[in-house]
Amino acid sequence: MNKKIDVIIIGGGIGGLMNAYQLMETNPMLNIVILEKGLPLNRRVCPLITGKVDHCIHCKHCAIMEGMAGAGAFSDGKYIISTEYGGWLTDFMPAKEVMSNIEHADQILQKFGATDHRYQPDTDLKHLCLQYDLHMNLAQVKHLGTDANFQTMANLIESLKDRVDIRTESTVVDVDKETKTVMVDHKGEKYTLHADHIVFAIGRAGSDFFAKWCVKNGIPLENNQVDIGVRVELPYDIWSHFSTKIYEPKIWYRSKKYGDITRMFCFNERGHVVIENTHGVQTVNGHAFKDEAKKTGNSNFALLSTIKFTTPFNEPIEYARHIARLANMISGGSVLVQRFGDLMQGRRSDHRRLNQSTTYPTLGAVPGDLSLCIPKRQLDNIVETLQALDKVAPGTANTDTLLYGIECKYYSARPKTTNFELDKCKGIYALGDGAGFTRSLSHAAAHGIIIADTITKR
Ligand SMILES: Cc1cc2nc3c(=O)[nH]c(=O)nc-3n(C[C@H](O)[C@H](O)[C@H](O)COP(=O)(O)OP(=O)(O)OC[C@H]3O[C@@H](n4cnc5c(N)ncnc54)[C@H](O)[C@@H]3O)c2cc1C
Q1: Which range (53-67, 128-142, 334-348) has the least confidence?
Q2: Residue 290 CB-density burial (10 A; 0-12 exposed, 13-18 middle, 19+ buried)
Q3: What percent of the chain shows pLDDT beyond 90?
């Protein structure tokens, strides 16, 4: 007879892992199963990054987004130790409580190898930004680097292996909310599991599935904002007066033309620009290694314009994907890169112009014209913000600054919950990025702990 399962966690990203870890720490006798649709961490290999292919071949499981350790596995491993940004948990509980869970998650990660070094906020830089109507968030930041973050995740998973039943290549295809039965597809074979508690920790890779499941089960959803724009790549020196002090400048600007907010974030010092594939749509992102040998001469950051739709439109994610698909179409199935100077002169970048660039691209994107796919309003916002940023970091708006597109951050639709328990679904919870509560490693990790403690109290 099957052993009774206490908790099924759907998704083996940082939120799901922290949830399992905290549950095991407080209730060692619990029988916990993690179901992860992707591969074990050591088998997650992106053929594009390893140079086996020159364009994304849409692997069955995207090694960047899916698999044990989730979307953060190959990330830059920046951990925001603050509630100022990184998620919306403070909409549901006091900031102090959120912060104490962020700190708790950090202590756990340090046990598994994360550095204890924190970059401190710098008020002089904040003042400099303010002089140009640029607004910099102040927060402590930890930077593990892609390699050290990967190893920390590997150590955390290793510590869980003997205590938690971890099943990879196991996609949850449905959940019966009345009987709490989970339908699993393991390499084409279907089976069911039953548990007292179920936690959706599905990340962005599972947000579509989760939103559809909510609609089918009558759980009200609320749409969040969508951010659309580009990844900016430029020589390391241009932002080094910020990055050497605070590592990650997070700066927002309200455009004069439209009054829209554009944000600079996800800074990667001496890093790489990478392609991300979500449900067959290719977008860009960035990361950086800690290992000196893997560093590049460039830094990169996201520059995204925020859109909040009003009625009757309620499909912000589809809107962002539509724009990203346009860039995929124009580039022949890849992503675009354009020099800022070419964009300003109203002409595409081509191989000849890109070869003349003094900023050498770290990603083999297709040279083209971003104005053919980014809507005018967002493109104007991006140009205006780059010009404002140029005042605090001269060189940002140079001719050879590279813009990759599309980068978008769509924050999943958020379900109606009480203490993160889904509306009228006793014992079923949702956490992390896939349910629209967080948008960062540290906040998703904290959320895992918060829900574990809620389950324990039950
Ligand atoms: C390239 C990249 C770089 C990033 N860099 C940073 C950074 O430096 N700092 C930062 O704070 N954030 C960063 N992020 C964001 C960060 O990774 C996420 O905020 C974080 O991973 C969210 O954690 P999560 O547990 O909610 O979801 P995820 O980490 O996405 O994990 C969800 C898991 O659920 C699995 N899953 C989905 N659906 C199902 C299903 N039906 N059945 C079974 N399993 C399922 C997925 O395969 C996935 O492994 C980055 C993201 C990317 C892609």
Answers
A1: 53-67
A2: middle
A3: 81
pLDDT of 4 over the 90 cut: no
Structural domains of the chain ordered from first start: 5-119+141-221+415-457 (3.50.50.60), 226-410 (no CATH)
- Residue with the smallest CA separation from ligand 1 atom 46 is 66
Residue with tokens 């109290």: 457
Q: What's the one-letter identity of residue 60? A: K
Q: What are phi and psi of 425, to 5 degrees?
A: -130, 80
The CB of 439 under 6 Å from ligand 1? The reply is yes
Whether 82 is in the pocket of ligand 1, judged by its Cβ within 6 Å, is no
The two tokens of residue 76 are 């830059």
When pLDDT is averaged across residues 89-96 and rounded to a whole number, the result is: 96
The best mutation among 75, 140, 300, 450 to test binding of ligand 1, ranked by most ligand atoms within 8 Å of the C-beta, falls on 75
> Is any ligand 1 atom within 6 A of the Cβ of residue 286?
no
What phi, psi does 291 have (nearest 5°)? -60, 120
Residue 1 has pLDDT above 50, yes or no: no
Q: Is the CB of 77 under 6 A from ligand 1?
A: yes
Q: What is the pLDDT of residue 223?
A: 73
433 DSSP assignment: G
